């Protein structure tokens, strides 16, 4: 299995390091032809409006949306979640989410950089205790669709879940120092 990491901007290197530490075969995705070479993809955190623009300049928007709609397994973290959402309540007027995940989000919903925080999260299906949730300018999930399975919550709000083959986290598992969520995703599709 070859796992791609969208490498336009943001915390893509940290995802590559986590996946490599698990022994996964990893490829950077920067152009449409790179999508044809991967069996799954991680969509990293970063600046959602910048990544949105880079999807257009790299000509990745439509091929990525098509692959995701066709069932390419994906794990979208923080800004990646914003990119996949069906609705972004406070996005820029020219921001176009891929609309492949039935959730509504608010950018920076937990606050700006100075309000970033870490908190333990009880994750359904994850053994060995809580997962360290690292929230940095994280989006808040305001609504989850009927087919979205919530795997963890913070203060009653979904922060980790999946719908079909698209997993999401409003936090940064790649910055936690804990590889269990990456491992859970890899094991699910291996």
Chain-wise SSE layout:
Blueprint: E1 2-6, H1 12-21, E2 25-29, H2 32-35, E3 40-43, H3 48-57, H4 61-69, E4 74-77, H5 79-84, E5 85-88, E6 101-106, E7 117-121, E8 131-135, E9 140-144, E10 149-154, E11 157-163, E12 166-169, H6 180-189
Give the strand content. 25-35%
What is the CATH fold-level name? Rossmann fold
Task: Sum up the overall morphology in one term.
Answer: globular
**CATH H level, superfamily name:** Class I glutamine amidotransferase (GATase) domain
Strand order of the largest sheet: 2-1-3-4-12-11-10
Helix content: 25-40%
Number of domains: 1
Q: Mind telling me the C-alpha Rg?
A: 15 Å
Note the total helix count. Answer: 6
Sheet of most strands:
7 strands, mixed
Would you count the extended β strands for me? 12
C-alpha termini separation? 7 Å
Helix/sheet category: alpha/beta
CATH architecture name: 3-Layer(aba) Sandwich
Taken in chain order, the helices and strands follow as EHEHEHHEHEEEEEEEEH
Mean model confidence by pLDDT: 95
Instruction: Please write the CATH class name.
Output: Alpha Beta
Which stretches are low in confidence, meaning pLDDT under 50 for 5 or more residues running?
A: none
Q: Could you explain how this protein is built, in words?
A:
The protein is α/β, with parallel strands linked by helices. It has one domain (2-189): Rossmann fold, CATH 3.40.50. The chain contains 6 helices and 12 strands. The model has no long low-confidence stretch (mean pLDDT 95).
